[in-house]
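for the recovery benchmark. tokens below, seq after
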């Protein structure tokens, strides 16, 4: 059984994340999308909200599970019996950081390897941070996130559209 985890903040889930989830789920038996409980960041959505949104928008993919975790990704992967971490690469700017994290995780847990999927060109510019920025000014985010998530974001920013 090949089990992978796809860790991240997902605050909120974007079409870029969904694309990585759909593609990587085809490569493994079980994919855990794992929402990181990171108290240092000031998130727009609670971990519970993020988990439930991801569940809703991945329910059509039978081998995808959604969970949350805190602590080290390498430890979480071990506890879950996962041997693979999935990450998405958008641009060179992602690479340096991702390489460092991947090598650290491998050093902590040698059974663990990170695979990188290159972003779909359609979503190469897309990040949760940018989507939040646009939404906070009432801009159109329909190309970036599913409609229901867009609605929830405008609600958080008290924007009537
Ligand atoms: P972080 O863990 O830095 O908070 P996110 O939760 O936004 O990052 O993203 C989780 C993972 O998804 C990261 O590997 C990130 O590179 C990847 N990702 C985010 N947006 C995209 C996108 N538009 N295309 C491909 N991969 C993406």
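predicted aa per position
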């Amino acid at each position: 059984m090949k089990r992978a985890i796809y860790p991240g903040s997902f605050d909120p889930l974007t079409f870029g994340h969904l694309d990585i989830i759909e593609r990587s789920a085809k490569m493994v038996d079980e994919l855990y999308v794992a929402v990181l409980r990171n108290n240092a960041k000031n998130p727009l959505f609670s971990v519970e909200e993020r988990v439930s949104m991801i569940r809703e928008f991945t329910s059509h993919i039978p081998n995808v599970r959604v969970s949350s975790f805190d602590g080290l990704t390498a430890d979480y992967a071990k506890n879950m019996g996962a041997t693979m971490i999935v990450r998405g690469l958008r641009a060179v700017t992602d690479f340096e950081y991702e390489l460092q994290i991947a090598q650290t995780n491998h050093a902590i847990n040698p059974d663990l390897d990170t695979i990188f999927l290159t972003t779909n060109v359609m979503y190469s510019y897309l990040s949760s941070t940018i989507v939040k920025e646009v939404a906070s000014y009432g801009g159109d985010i329909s190309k970036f996130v599913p409609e229901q998530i867009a609605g929830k974001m405008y609600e958080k920013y008290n924007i009537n559209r």
